[in-house]
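Comment thread on ticket #2218

A.B. wrote:
> Attaching the input chain for the structure job we discussed in standup.
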Amino acid sequence: MASLLGNPERALQCAHLLLAGGLAGLLLGVLLAYGLDSYLTLPVLLAAHLLTILGPTAIKLGYVLRLQVLSRR
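C.D. wrote:
> Ran it. Output below, let me know if you need it in another format.
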């Protein structure tokens, strides 16, 4: 982790990946959990609901990492 935060460009890239991945996970989870729920099996529906929790978590982590990197510049 220290090597990641030691290189600001790499940390910023990681933050952007977390933001984009979190947004994609959130959108996919909402689409599956609330749009296509009648077509899914229970384990897939459970995974879709988990994505609606993990997506925003990744967005928040990416945002905090991005703020940390930009404040050190």
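A.B. wrote:
> Thanks. Noting for the ticket: The mean pLDDT is 94.
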